[in-house]
Design brief:
Oligomer: single chain
Number of strands: 15
Low-confidence stretches: 174-179
Shape: globular
Distance between the termini: 38 Å
Strand order of the largest sheet: 3-4-2-5-1-6-7-8
Bound molecules: adenosine-5'-diphosphate, magnesium ion
Helix content: 40-55%
Radius of gyration: 24 Å
Strand content: 15-25%
């Protein structure tokens, strides 16, 4: 079983690449499902077939699904939400407001995670390809189990007191006997499912994140942030896929500057993502839709390689918390010589230069107010300590 998640900024080519990867896997004889989680679905257009909120078999070994957040939400969250709405309404909150506040934060984007759990338990598919929503939502969704825990604690502490008086009125309100026990069990089930998905997605022998980018500075910079947060949450990225590279044979002077800029930006990709393998796809002479262009895209991307291979093991950067409450950032720097090390830091970025080698790292929020203590080369990497500024309140 393999789970491959494509993420990146809107419009870079996630859907096209997910569809091309899935098509190729299916033709290798692997039972493959591709799920799109972007609310602006275009997977159906890309495959040039009608698909819906439940999986549809498109051709041999290939299934596709456009996950509908509302549909998934009702399916998995409906009974608990009904209970909550009833409770808030009873307390004088307007219906519509009650509906809104009982929507679990991040859940609209996160509902598709629940499908992954289902497919893994069914054990029918060999490969699950996820075409994930644009960056910010994807990140929120990946931290969802934590958000859920937070939310659960707040809401349950609110409802506990209410449960006593709520029990007798639940029945007429909901027109069904919904003891709080059942609702809480439903919630508990949901929470466990989310947590098991999080465990699956952080199992590096099963799941890989693939960052889809274009050779454009803004896109690279934003995706760099995604990369930092993915590694922070413990999700392994196994490659970067750069789409829409202007082919060499385009010689029209109109595109000369574009091509130059793209070359510079491809160098920047190396500085930002370190040793992560880089897969490249050209800007085609037409949009990517239908089986023929998806074949072309898959051939160029993977050549003779198996798309389900784990393309990179380990991490190029890792952030961990020490026992003393300080943090350590470890950056893999093979072949580096410490004599040549330069380190520049702004609030949220760190640039390392070791001889001709440069690495640029976006720091997570937790490190913004900390300062760099010690930096040491150990086991083909640089370990940088982040310590609380003198006088700053010690972080938990
Ligand atoms: N390499 C490419 N060459 C030409 N058109 C492309 C290429 N990759 C994607 N497209 C087109 O660009 C548009 C956006 O791609 P899409 O895969 O839907 O991006 P995303 O899912 O990241 O929003 C689509 O119309 C698609 O056909
Ligand atoms: Mg898309």
């Amino acid at each position: 079983m393999r789970i491959i998640v494509h993420t990146g900024k809107g419009g870079v080519g996630k859907t096209s690449i997910s569809a091309a990867t899935a098509l190729r896997c299916s033709e290798m004889g692997l039972k493959t499902i591709v799920l799109s989680t972007d609310t602006a679905h275009s997977l159906g257009d890309s495959l040039d077939m009608e698909i819906g909120p439940e999986p549809i078999e498109l051709r041999q070994n290939l299934w596709a699904q456009e996950v509908d957040a509302r549909y998934s939400m009702d399916k998995y969250w409906g009974s608990f939400q009904k209970y909550m709405v009833a409770m808030f309404t009873q307390k004088g909150v307007k219906d519509i407001v009650a509906e809104e506040v009982t929507i679990l934060p991040g859940f609209e984007e996160g509902a598709h995670l629940l499908w992954i759990d289902k497919y893994v338990k069914q054990n029918f598919y060999d490969v699950i390809i996820v075409d994930a929503a644009p960056t910010a939502e994807t990140l929120r969704l990946l931290s969802l189990p934590d958000v859920t825990r937070w939310w659960l604690e707040r809401v349950l502490s609110l409802t506990k007191g209410a449960a006593k008086f709520l029990r007798p009125i639940a029945k007429p309100l909901l027109k069904t006997d919904l003891p709080d026990q059942a609702a809480f069990e439903a919630f508990d089930g949901l929470f466990k499912t989310l947590d098991s998905v999080r465990v699956l997605l952080s199992d590096t022998s099963v799941s890989s994140m693939r960052l889809v980018i274009n050779p454009e500075k803004m896109v690279i910079k934003e995706t760099q942030r995604t990369y930092t947060y993915l590694s922070l949450y413990g999700y392994a990225t196994d490659c970067v896929i750069c789409n829409r590279i202007m082919p060499d044979e385009v010689n029209d002077p109109y595109f000369a500057q574009w091509k130059d800029l793209q070359k510079q930006n491809i160098n920047l990709i190396g500085e930002v993502f370190g040793e992560l393998p880089l897969l490249k796809a050209p800007m085609f002479d037409r949009d990517v839709n239908g089986i023929d262009t998806l074949h072309r895209l898959g051939d160029i991307l993977f050549k003779d390689h198996n798309p389900t291979d784990i393309m990179f093991k380990g991490t190029t950067q890792q952030i961990s918390k020490n026992d003393d409450g300080n943090y350590q950032l470890r950056v893999k720097l093979p072949f580096a010589d410490k004599k040549d090390l330069d380190l520049y830091r702004s609030a949220d970025e760190l640039t390392l230069r070791v001889g001709p080698y440069r690495r640029n790292i976006v720091l997570p929020h937790a490190l913004w107010d900390m300062e760099i203590g010690d930096a040491k080369f150990e086991e083909a990497g640089l370990n940088i300590q982040f310590v609380a500024k003198p006088g700053a309140e010690q972080q938990r």
